[in-house]
């Protein structure tokens, strides 16, 4: 089934959600006020916790890859420190003439290291795979909102294919020697270009996370209901986990039960996955203004899917990086630091990365005016870098913010995964593993508990059948 979506203003979107989805099955002309890039609009009924875990995952060359995994989950409501997201290089000492990287983003809804709630679980899982040379935190606002609807969300940084690897290579190039080692201690460059190795490592990361879920969450997680979501190369990772890859030499990950992909890879990478072998429920989303991986690539993948249960959604004015929900906040934070001092080499690099992208879309394309002016007016440095004079009436140039896209991706993911993962009955019996985050709502350790899934769910299939 094909659908095309434009975007209403925030006020217009506050309507009965079933009515919204009935309307969104058709191409709707939507005008719109803009939403602040850091606004958390779609929030479910659960408080959200965030924590970071670390896995050592063997790489294709025998190296040990230290994979950081961001976890968002339904949490015990309590007063706690708001989660803050930043680069793994934050605070790392550089050369004497350079300040350490210091930007951070903390305007989301999650709280750090609070215990998982007992009420309503055990929770289904969404594993999220980031795009090439991205990081998991680039999508943090979207992922924490997904968790608020009753999902455990696990998002790895795929070592060797992250923006932090790119940052290390940049700093070492500026220093003219290897000032910083690669995370896996392999020879530079740290950002690797070998696609087969990248894809094999990515799918290994997914399997390693699944293996670790009960250690982290005990009886709060239901490993019989695991979905996978990705962006760009992360979409190809989801396709590869679902169908395996004859080209790259690995089988499907059978514990993944459904996949959702935002944008997609270039054809040569996308069809390295066994797309025609995929029989799982699949939802693909493509931006109609994406020049990095045009919508026709998503359409071709949709056509090739072996699944009889598949959806494709097109987003008017969406570019490749419209799905990166924290990029505008990263631009504001790094821009305020870079504008204040020329010593901020790493923060300036982050700012430049948001403002310049040949095919992915730039900050002026998808960031609202507040992202350039609140809390710091960074328009002077933006203008000096780009030559573009930002005003309240000319950004985002595509009339669509990452915040608006984030809202709609949360809606889609909640409806899609809420339906398809519920087709798999919860595991019977009792968990005896207490788990790292498993506590009751008073913060006490959990004993055995029976599985029960609650929460607001939408009838995706019933609505879809109306078209």
Query: Could you tell me the mean pLDDT?
Result: 85
Integer-rounded radius of gyration: 21 Å
Question: Please, how many domains?
Answer: 1
CA-to-CA gap between the ends? 8 Å
Write the H/E string, N to C.
EHHEEEEHEHHEHEHEHEHHHHHHH
Spatial ordering of strands, largest sheet: 1-10-9-8-7-5-6-3-2-4
- What's the total helix number? 15
Strand content: 15-25%
Task: Please bin the fraction of helical residues.
Answer: 25-40%
CATH architecture: 3-Layer(aba) Sandwich
Number of strands: 10
Indicate the CATH class. Answer: Alpha Beta
Remind me, CATH topology?
Answer: Rossmann fold
CATH superfamily membership: Alpha/Beta hydrolase fold, catalytic domain
Q: Which segments are poorly predicted (pLDDT under 50) over 5 or more consecutive residues?
A: 6-41, 428-467
Bulk shape: globular
- What would you call the structural class? alpha/beta
Which short descriptors sum up this protein?
15% strand; ten-stranded mixed sheet; 467 residues; disordered C terminus; Rossmann fold; alpha/beta
Written overview of the protein:
The protein has 467 residues and is an alpha/beta fold. It contains 15 helices and ten strands. The model is unreliable at 6-41 and 428-467 (pLDDT under 50).
Quick structural gist:
The protein is an alpha/beta fold and 467 residues long. The chain has a single domain, classed as 3-Layer(aba) Sandwich (Rossmann fold). It has helices at residues 10-13, 17-24, 140-147, 163-175, 195-217, 233-243, 267-270, 295-304, 327-340, 345-355, 363-366, 369-373, 379-386, 402-420, 460-464; strands spanning 2-5, 47-58, 64-75, 111-112, 123-129, 152-156, 221-231, 256-262, 282-287, 310-315.
